[in-house]
Design goal:
The complex is a heterodimer. Chain A is mainly alpha-helical. In chain A, 74% of the residues lie in helices and 0% in strands. Classes of the chains: A mainly alpha, B mainly alpha.
Chain lengths: 288, 279
Amino acid sequence: MPDTVPHAFARHAVSPVTERAWVRHTLIALAATGLAVLVFAPLCVVFQEALAGDWRTALANPDARSAIRLTLTVTAISVPLNAIFGITAAWAITKFEFRGKALLITLIDLPFSVSPVVAGLCLVLLFGANTGIGGWMVAHGHPIIFALPGIVLATLFITFPFVARELIPLMTEQGRTEEEAALSLGASGLRTFATVTLPNIRWALLYGVLLSNARAMGEFGAVAVVSGKIRGQTATMPITIEMLYNEYLSVAAFTLAAVLALLALVTLALKTALELRHADQLAAIGHP
Amino acid sequence: MMAALRPRRSAMPGFGITMGVTLTMLSLVVLLPIGALVIKGTAFGPEAVWEVVNRPRTWAALWLSFRLSALAALFNLVFGVLLAWVLVRYRFVGRRLFDAAVDLPFALPTAVAGIALTTLYAPNGVFGSVLAHLGWRVAYTQWGIFVALVFVGLPFVVRTVQPVLATMDRELEEASATLGASRTRTICKVILPMLMPAALTGVALALARAVGEYGSVIFIAGNIPMRTEIAPLLIVIQLEEFNYDAAAAIGLAMLAISFVLLLAINLLQVWSRRRIENA
């Protein structure tokens, strides 16, 4: 129908279902200017500031190195855990009927609406050195807050819904007939998952992992509260950026920022590629 | 707990293990920490919590966070609908690039965005120097906070409105035009009302995100008490001074705001689904 009707109007100067050319051009120009000012300018300034100085030395700095190592470690622990959680949660929620399902989904989404700083605060109140659990762990030489476990927990909290949120709508839509067929033919549960479910959800899973990875590497607010900001030990890349910036070490700060910005660009490129090639196998496009 | 969750008869295996892993991780990572905040607040006592929240400095910070978040969300409502419209309805060079760029605020770490915006809008920055000539200071004022919150909230309205606009039936517009309505009237009376529920959902999401936003704001805000100090920063300050009770009190207030917004988002989504089903 959109193919036939506009033809009827083709002879008129202006189609009744679109705007005049000057209106269209003005709107496009407004959108382009807005995006240039709001999005492209901050992105460019990151690289400009990094390249304005000696970014190689900044990158070779031991504190920068240790920050990169810590961020990679935290991500390597939290993203796989989130992927496992996302898969198990999606399986339980989409393959079974039970009471309280809507509540469970709401609780999984909860971290999206909690401020990162409040998330960090919650972890400090539960695991801090002056609490029961935290005190016991410190006494046994395994502090949680101001140490790696706290940073991992904060990252897990913030990225918690990412994978589950991608998988639940898709697996609801796909139903369970394919799995039921495999099971009735004698396949074990694990085998059914690996050979039937996983191929069906792999792109959505990758999409969720991608978003969760980007957020995990860049998380600042929650980590700032639990990290203690010990240089060379508990300072992740975003925390180190803050410390360097506050010490007026602009080139060093922007060099690390540029590394994270590059990662953001790679994430966006992969995300766009996934959306273009596998749109049908993704539940929803482009939400947080 | 597990008994109440027992599923109706199903041939599917793995309910016990998947539900077990899900509930364990949910409890450990999300529910227990939030519970700890609620318990801390309860132990501190409602009057003591209120005393902290009612301090002029706390009140000013909460009101500042909420007010600027609302203003930024409103700006994003207008610009987001415009952007979604342009991206869905028009074909032009660079459209895909623009579309991908909308997600940059989601992908770019907040601390990176924070120092980049501060550098741009500082009095000697690219935008800041031009604006300074006009006598308009952005960095280290409430305008700076507004700019940062517009940045982090940008994708929400675009991404909620885009799918609605893409699947909207063009016949309605044609009918409106056939009946003699001008293009402006069709847009105002037919198209915009249909986009409203999705757009408002986007506004609520942007608002929820902005109220709790920390990383992109603290660099550009200047952090002057009573004037440019946001609520999350106040929590960080209390924690640095080891005032755990006061931090918990402000945290509870912010959690309450988040819950109200979450409720609003859910109601908006129910409303929008009903409207689509009725249409």
